[in-house]
Amino acid sequence: MRFTAPPAALGGHALLVFLVAMVTLLLVARLLAAFAERVGLPAIVGELATGVILGPSLLGHLLPSLTGWIFPRAAEQMHLLDGMGQIGILLLVGLTGTHLDVAMVRRRKATAARISVGGMLVPLALGLVVGYQMAAWINGTPARNRLLFAGLIGVAMCVTAIPVIAKTLSDMRLLHRDMGQLTMAAGTIDDAVGWFLLSVVSMATVAGLSIGHVVTAAAYLLGFVVLAVLLGRPLVRRVMRLADRSAAPGPSIVAAVVIVLTGAAITQALGMEPVFGAFVAGILVGLPRAANGAKLAPLRTVVLSVLAPIFLAAAGFRMDLTALAQPRVAFAALVVLTVATLGKFAGAYAGARLSRMSRWESLAIGAGMNSRGVVEVVVALTGLRLGILNTGSYTIIVLVAIVSSVMAPPILRYACARITENEDERLRKIDHDTWSGVPAARHSPSNAEESA
What we know:
Blueprint: H1 12-38, H2 43-54, H3 59-62, H4 64-70, H5 75-98, H6 102-107, H7 109-139, H8 146-158, H9 162-171, H10 178-207, H11 211-244, H12 250-269, H13 274-286, H14 297-317, H15 327-354, H16 359-370, H17 373-386, H18 391-416, H19 423-436, H20 445-451
Helix pairs in contact: 1-2, 1-14, 2-14, 5-12, 5-13, 5-14, 7-8, 7-10, 7-15, 8-10, 8-17, 9-10, 10-11, 10-16, 10-17, 11-12, 11-13, 12-13, 15-16, 15-18, 16-18, 17-18
């Protein structure tokens, strides 16, 4: 066998450009995230705005030469940023899975199912109708591909951004509340179905839509979940216990990262989206008696502060808000935003009310389920990569992600102020703070009463 020399290491101008781009993205993302939080918005709004401001929507339009030097359009340079961003989003989704209270979900599975079904079927049906009717008008999609475009719009409207919900609820100290856990549980079901539907759309784009592809995708999804429960759960528990024997957090962090990325790699190999595998793996890591949550707090800090913003900023790069200057694109954006918001909110609210939850709890759940953020960005990026979306339709979907994320916090704050905190929620708050690395002083009775 002939020996092939390894490729040259990254260096020279390519490395310089990568480092400058990383510094610029992180600095601007941190500043804009801090500004967003100061005015009562989720940090994700500022992080997504980073790519919008530095990309073709603003700076790239005003100073194209400067933007072209810092963020060259060469595929290999963008792939470096994309690779960093993908690691960040997979770890963020995995860490989100660790916060899911599986015991509570089991107790209230019927309620979670009703919320999920309502929050999924209504926007999915509306998305299919709107996407099919507007495919040629806003996307220039040929008649034979209208169904694929409609399917992607339907998926984008029915998904729920678990990472954004978790971060928003955590930042607002609401993740321990029953409505927060039910929102997470219902959102998990929605996203599982959403990843399945997205996988079907992806497979249909590459190989053509057929019953066989749908059955294959469903079999892979079901098989992965069954293996995760039967084999993954005891294996992850053993690995995390071995890692936790060390007094230092390093082994536990490495074990958690390897488990999450392995789950992502398996679903990617099966033709599904890697985010779903990362989330399932994170749930296994977070199960009771599986891991010492306090040791994962440093990982959470790095992911939320460094890696995830890179993904969100890179996603904003592919937006071009100047496309909204076209009347048809602007009108389509208004229609899609209205249908997506009303459909998701109304469906989740109806599911909660059918489960005999109070109107304030139902309002909070509707607001939380309507927040799409990161997951809708992933769907949009997938559609762009597969050639289903153009720049205009991609911008519309990401715009829905941003607006829905902005809407959630004020509604949640208003509704949750009118919901009394129970004893189970107080105990869950202590557990959540342990995972998040919150100092023990915040667990004092006075602080607990203050937060309530």
